[in-house]
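Worked example (supplementary).
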Amino acid sequence: MRHQPLHHVIACEAGRTALSLCRQAVAMDPSYAPASTFIGAIRSYQWVAGAALTEEEIAEAVNLARQAIETEDNDSDVLSRSALALSMLAGEHSAAVSALGRATTLNPNSARAWGLSAAVNCSACRPEAAIAGAQRAMRLSPLDPLGYQFKLALGYGLMLTGSYVEALEWVDQSLHDRSTFPPAIRVKIALLGYLGRREEAAR
Amino acid sequence: MIPMLKQDPARTVASYIAFGTKFLSSRTLAVLVEGFRRAGVPEE
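After joint prediction of all chains, the assembly is encoded as:
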């Protein structure tokens, strides 16, 4: 499982390394969902970062996620990563929200499951669930390496409710932790627009 | 052009709509796009 620390790194080289490690694990055991679902998670991070993925790459990741949800429905981590892929790569938000509901029920102490739930609920425009999920993830793991994603999801959810000032505070905290995180940059630009700070957006 | 978005799918409203339609709900996409427009992101 050497790929695990790498999966959230969006940089192309790290993503390729993580994918290679996952593929080696899947080649040894095609039914090993903890590795196969990392492929979907990595592709999801690459996609939302703006990487150009082929139809085949997206289809592979989505199919692996669907298979994993059917065969590994008692593994919170597998369900969470599969849900991320379904939401971010296929726009299947209902299925993703359902899988994340099961994931967080199976392991209510999983900060990552709550954090991914928050992200998916932002995409699905369910801001109350997104805010609650992000807050819970941060309570469970205040120093989590993925904390910048939890903070973005909180800010993103707040933006969807119209709480722009508070939203920007959280998005700025996310960018403080990870200044090149593309989704956070996008949400910040949109928030600056809502707050009438057009000049700041143009810098 | 917004400098922070020059390499991003959100460099224009049109390119972000093409990108975001694939994975964002229509309501979430609409909120982001409205913010981009107000921030001065070019349409095309």
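Two points are worth noting when inspecting this output. The mean pLDDT of chain B is 95. The interface with chain A takes residues 2-5, 7-10, 16, 19, 22-25, 27-28, 31-32, 34-41 of chain B (CB under 8 Å).
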